[in-house]
Amino acid sequence: MQKCKSDKSVDKSIVTKRDPKTKELQKIISSFTIEDNPTLQQEVKTAFEQDKEDAYQVIENESNGKMDYFIRFSKANVKVSYSMDSRDTKLSFTVIENFDKGTDFEFGNDM
């Protein structure tokens, strides 16, 4: 993810949510789109393949030879979800880091 954040050719959107009263960090949603860069796309796909072994939830969808993933981790007090969609020359992925200790979330309700 850090490589994608710093790469100027990667389209990115990062949303940070804080508690309005305490300003405590609650959630970071980072979305990336990589087009026409097969080397970086392969690095991301390889990372997803490796990381899914440590996840507590993995959803894989395959259609026409393309694999899409949803992977969820729990690291210390942070729940992290990754989703990836790969189509033709475009790869998109989203990372949701949830720091809100009182909430268990589902992917569709995080944005």
User: Hey, roughly how much beta strand do the residues contain?
Assistant: over 45%
Largest sheet: 6 strands, antiparallel
Tell me the Rg in angstroms. 15 Å
List low-confidence stretches: 104-111
What structural class do you assign from the helix and strand content? alpha+beta
Mean pLDDT: 84
Tally the helices: what do you get?
A: 2
Counted beta strands? 6
Distance between the termini: 19 Å
* Overall 3D form: globular
N-to-C order of helices and strands: HEEHEEEE
Strand arrangement within the widest β-sheet reads 1-2-6-5-4-3
Helix content: 10-25%
Brief overview, please?
The chain is of the alpha+beta class. It has helices at residues 2-6, 38-51; strands at residues 11-18, 25-35, 57-63, 66-75, 78-87, 90-98.
Description:
The chain has 111 residues and is an alpha+beta fold. Helix content is 17%, strand content 50%. It is built from 2 helices and 6 strands, in the order αββαββββ. Strands 1-2-6-5-4-3 form a 6-stranded antiparallel sheet, covered by helices on one side. The longest helix has 14 residues, at 38-51. It is globular, with a radius of gyration of 15 Å. The two termini are 19 Å apart. Mean pLDDT is 84; it is low at 104-111.
